[in-house]
Amino acid sequence: MIRLVEGGFELTAFCAGRTESGAVASFVGIARGERGAATALELEAYPGFTEVEIGRMVEAATARFSLHDALVIHRHGAIAPGEPIVMVATASAHRREAFEACDYLMDYLKSRAPFWKKEHGPAGARWVEPTERDLDDLARWE
Amino acid sequence: MRVLLFGRLGDVAGWRERGFDPPPASLSALKALIAAEDADLGLAIAGPGVRAAVDRVIVRGEAALGPGAEVAFLPPMSGG
């Protein structure tokens, strides 16, 4: 869908006041329904620990990609298919760094962030661990 | 002191947070106490990839525990 808006959008605050950041890249992750196999997600965090670990990822991304700023918003608790789980936004002088840092942060969040994810479905509930694909994605940066 | 269990460990134990009073003197004493009370949980905590954090810092090996300590057992993370 393409929307033309005259007013603000969710990144307005993050973009505001940047006179030297030429680029803001953002990503929103959404809970997949897996064609009915996943009816709900339960995401458990360890408040006070999870944020610190994510903060380390943001620090590493900031240094590696010369970011001016980064924003990570991650939900925990019960999440229904179609609902957003995570948003990452990165700001840098030029677009390449912002794009790459956003990609990098998402790969780290998907495989290394301290969350425990339980997927509920018609077949019951199961604890999810990072997939081969998540680990392959992460290996691109190491 | 408080013990927190995350992910499947909480399902195995049937609790996710519990106080231990008086506190065991060390992390290994706490693990032994848990294993003596609940063999399944003891095995789960000793399982592959399970890490312990004391006061929100990952501990490898032994740690002393005081009355105000918070110990968390963290199974392999799912990621976000």
Could you characterize the architecture of this molecule?
The complex is a heterodimer of chains A (142) and B (80). Chain A is of the alpha+beta class and 142 residues long. In chain A, 32% of the residues lie in helices and 31% in strands. Chain A has helices spanning 12-15, 50-65, 95-112, 132-139; strands at residues 23-30, 40-45, 69-74, 77-79, 84-92, 115-121, 124-128. In chain A, the strands form 2 sheets. Chain A has a 4-stranded antiparallel β-sheet with strand order 4-2-6-7, with no helix packed on it. In chain A, strand 6 (115-121) and strand 7 (124-128) form a beta hairpin. In chain A, helix 2 (50-65) packs antiparallel against helix 3 (95-112) and helix 3 (95-112) crosses helix 4 (132-139). The longest helix of chain A is centred in the last third of the chain and has 18 residues, at 95-112. The radius of gyration of chain A is 16 Å and the shape is globular. Chain B is of the alpha+beta class. Chain B contains 3 helices and 5 strands; from the N terminus they run E-H-E-H-H-E-E-E. Chain B has helices at 8-13, 27-37, 39-45; strands spanning 2-5, 17-19, 51-54, 57-59, 70-74. The longest helix of chain B has 11 residues, at 27-37. Chain B starts with a strand and ends in a 6-residue tail after the last strand. Classes of the chains: A alpha+beta (142), B alpha+beta (80). Chains A and B meet through helix 3 and strand 6 of A and loops of B.
List keywords for this structure.
heterodimer; A: 142 residues; alpha+beta; four-stranded antiparallel beta sheet; three-stranded antiparallel beta sheet; 7 strands; globular; B: 80 residues; five-stranded mixed beta sheet; 3 helices; 30% helix; 24% strand
